[in-house]
Amino acid sequence: MKFGMRKPSLRGRVKARTSIKRQIVHRAGIKMPKGYGWVRDPKKYAYNKVYTRTSFDIFSLLKKIFK
Fold this sequence. Notes:
Layout: E1 4-6, H1 10-18, H2 20-28, H3 37-40, H4 42-54, E2 55-57, H5 58-65
Parallel strand pairs: 1-2
């Protein structure tokens, strides 16, 4: 588990937005409603919940500083 600041990854950001799987699911309208991630994959949901509370993004930090 990561604690502290996350390293930004340009490759990861581009991959997440241009993946074939994302495009198919998005266009087919098979998306789950917000807040229902625990139904699809409870283990991943729990991991992500803890991860987002224990680490922070450099871009969100910069946004708060220069706001």
